[in-house]
Amino acid sequence: MALPALATTADQRTISERTNVLIRDYNGRRSAVPAATLPASPAVGERWLVTDAAAPTFGGALTGGGSAVVPVYWDGIIWRTG
């Protein structure tokens, strides 16, 4: 599923408004969740949005306890940001 493109110019929406659109479009029927509530045994490649990533880096291991809203995926061993 492709993420919606956000306008890069003349976009007067706040970061919060743009984040809410991303959350709605990315998860479809799901809500963004805290990292601690992600499924324990997901399918490889399963994707979610989390609301509390700490210092996320693309492809890095997910660490909760922060305030960043980021997409994550299960690589078969751990949740990774990206």
Question: Secondary structure elements and their pairing?
Answer:
Layout: H1 15-27, E1 47-53, E2 68-74, E3 79-81
Antiparallel strand pairs: 1-2, 2-3
Report on the architecture of this protein.
It is a single chain. The relative contact order is 0.19. A 3-stranded antiparallel β-sheet has the order 1-2-3, covered by helices on one side. The protein is globular, with a radius of gyration of 13 Å. The mean pLDDT is 81. The protein has one helix at residues 15-27; strands at 47-53, 68-74, 79-81. It starts with 14 loop residues before the first helix and ends with a strand. It is an alpha+beta fold and 82 residues long. The chain contains 1 helix and 3 strands. The chain has a domain at 32-81. A hairpin with a 4-residue loop joins strand 2 and strand 3 (79-81).
Features:
alpha+beta; 82 residues; globular
Biggest sheet details: 3 strands, antiparallel
Question: How would the global form be characterised?
Answer: globular
User: How many E-type strands?
Assistant: 3
- How much strand content do the residues show? 15-25%
Query: Order of strands across the widest beta sheet?
Result: 1-2-3
Distinct helical segment count: 1
SSE succession: HEEE
Which regions have little confidence, pLDDT < 50, spanning 5+ residues? none
| Oligomer classification | single chain
> What is the SS-derived class?
alpha+beta
Kindly state the percentage of residues in helix: 10-25%
Radius of gyration: 13 Å
Averaged pLDDT, please?
81
Terminal Cα span: 14 Å
